[in-house]
Amino acid sequence: MSKERIYGYARVSTREQNEDRQIIALMKMGVPKQNIYLDKLSGKNFERPQYKKLLGRLDCNSVLYIKSIDRLGRSYRDLSEQWRIITKEIGADVVVIDMPILDTRRDKNLLGTFISDLILALLSYVAETEYLTIHQRQAEGIAIAKANGCKFGRPPKQLPENFYEVYQEWKSKKISLSQAAKECGMPRSTFYYKAKCL
Questions:
Q1: Please, what's the largest Cα pairwise distance for the chain?
Q2: pLDDT digits (tens, 9 = 90+) for 107-156
């Protein structure tokens, strides 16, 4: 098979995550670097620019390599649908490097296809369940931390020392909102918001 027919897809969830491990694994399988498509987006759906571009390049003579099934996607339903589009509609082969049994080039008979689809269904279900479990644990951890008085986000900015004095003058209409904000060194909207919270 010519190198132009071999493609790779890599995905990381955020721009801070490193994709090198996936790229190295794909190149070891013989995927030319220029044929590797990378998205730095969540796997919750398939609205990804590089993935869409890759789909447009695939045909019945293509082989698509991915490092692991969760790099393709997280949603059980969406993942199964994309697998069907790639392997049935387009007619390309898919090779999951970390799971050699998911290699559609092998056993092209009915039983081989059935086993491959069955394994995919199981793995994609596990991938989605694991993803949902992680998020549930995070939510539970945050709820417990908040219940224990843990604060999240940036600490609130301290009010200027003269705020209450200026606030009283503004409240008794001795000075305007603009003057009060200026004396406190704050934007008008911030002064007004803080004043209303008292």
A1: 88
A2: 665 665 666 677 767 766 666 676 677 778 787 777 777 777 776 666 66
Lowest mean pLDDT among 21-35, 38-52, 163-177: 38-52
pTM, whole model, 2 decimals?
0.59
Name the catalytic one among 13, 42, 68, 75.
Answer: 13
Q: What is the C-alpha separation between 38 and 109, in angstroms, rounded? A: 32
* Beta strand 36-40 pairing with 6-12: parallel
Instruction: Extract the tokens encoding 92.
Output: 């390309």
Q: How far apart are CA 146 and CA 198, in angstroms?
A: 24
Beta bridge partners of 65: 8, 95
Catalytic residue check, 178:
no
The encoded tokens of residue 104 equal 């559609």
CA distance 102 to 123: 10
Sheet of 63-66: strands edge to edge?
36-40, 6-12, 63-66, 93-96
For the chain, how big is the Rg over CA atoms in Å?
A: 27
Helix (H, G, I), strand (E, B) or coil at 63: strand
User: Look-up: residue for tokens 């604060």?
Assistant: 151
pLDDT digits (tens, 9 = 90+) for 37-59: 999 887 677 889 999 999 999 99
Asked if pLDDT for residue 100 goes beyond 60, the answer is: yes
